[in-house]
Amino acid sequence: MHILISGASGLIGREVSSALIAAGHSVSRLVRGGVRREGDVAWTPGVEFAPEALKDVDAVVNLAGRSVAGRWSERVKAEIRESRIPSTAALARSIAASYRKHGKPTTFVSASAIGYYGSRGDDILTEQSSSGHGFLPQVCQEWEAATAASSEAGVRVVTPRIAVVLSQQGGALAKMLPIFRLGLGGRIASGHQWFSWISLDDLVSVFVFAITNQNVNGAINAAAPVPVTNAEFTRTLAEVLHRPAIFPLPASIARLMFTPQGAEEMLLSSQRVVPSKLEELGFQFRDRELKPALTRILGD
């Protein structure tokens, strides 16, 4: 297969590209500005392609989007939204036009996030669960809806709702490690909030599975089968690192650091997400439970 990837230079994009190439597929990157290496395709996010640009592409993977981490000013929130919705909609329209004219691409895998569900306490969240309320749920709803032109044209569209990705190479875990290695880590607020996670290796496998398996359609929860509470996560991380975890982050401090809305939606929200559709489809997780996963990841 020939696969075109936006966001190919990011943590997930790099690993997905490597896995696809290792499996014998051809990968091209969508890049902003000038083409820097053979196979790159220049694009301006939010601007559509001519149908001919995609006529030899079997699948498009969309991973572009500004990180949601950090302090949420109104400017940052606008950047989070604008880095996702217009570019996804333009890609979807371009794919639809090419598919109608050339019969390709046949697959569009466009990232989403478990932020779709909002904070839901102890509720077990499957792909059938409704969306929540707040900034991140609204962004995720619009992000997924932006793929509509492709699905309406008959293209197979998959939107993986990605949990917190565990990797030493980047993301939330990489930011936590220096603090926990110093023995200064601890739960956030009460720690009772549910924390859904997935190892980077499993997430890469989810994307490859979604690209190559014609039975995968619509939203899928890209989360490990066994979510944990924040207290369990921090306790387990400290245990694997052979450090204490005795310095909790009070909710009031989290709100000062990340703004009240940012803290509520990023750190204090409770999301008990399970990958029902992936398991029904027979996807095999490498990392199902947290402690063995962290032991392997940190050992690597």
Q: What is the averaged pLDDT score?
A: 94
In CATH terms, the superfamily is: NAD(P)-binding Rossmann-like Domain
The termini sit apart by 30 Å
Instruction: Determine the fraction of residues in helical runs and give it as a percent range.
Output: 40-55%
Your description of this structure?
There is one protein chain. Helices cover 41% and strands 17% of the residues. The protein has a single domain, classed as Rossmann fold, CATH 3.40.50. It contains twelve helices and 14 strands. The chain is globular. With 300 residues, it is α/β, with parallel strands linked by helices. Helix 1 crosses helix 7 and helix 9 crosses helix 10. The strands form four sheets. Strands 1, 2, 3, 4, 5, 6, 8 and 12 form an eight-stranded parallel β-sheet that branches. It has a two-stranded parallel sheet with strand order 7-14. Strands 9-11 form a two-stranded parallel ribbon. The protein starts with a strand and ends with a helix. The model has no long low-confidence stretch (mean pLDDT 94).
Give the helices and strands, then pairings:
Elements: E1 2-6, H1 11-22, E2 26-32, E3 41-43, E4 59-62, H2 74-82, H3 85-102, E5 107-110, E6 112-113, E7 124-125, H4 135-145, H5 148-153, E8 156-162, E9 164-166, H6 171-181, E10 194-195, E11 197-199, H7 200-212, E12 218-222, E13 228-229, H8 230-241, H9 251-258, H10 260-266, E14 272-273, H11 276-280, H12 290-299
Parallel strand pairs: 1-2, 1-4, 2-3, 4-5, 5-8, 6-8, 7-14, 8-12, 9-11
Antiparallel strand pairs: 10-13
Helix pairs in contact: 1-7, 8-12, 9-10
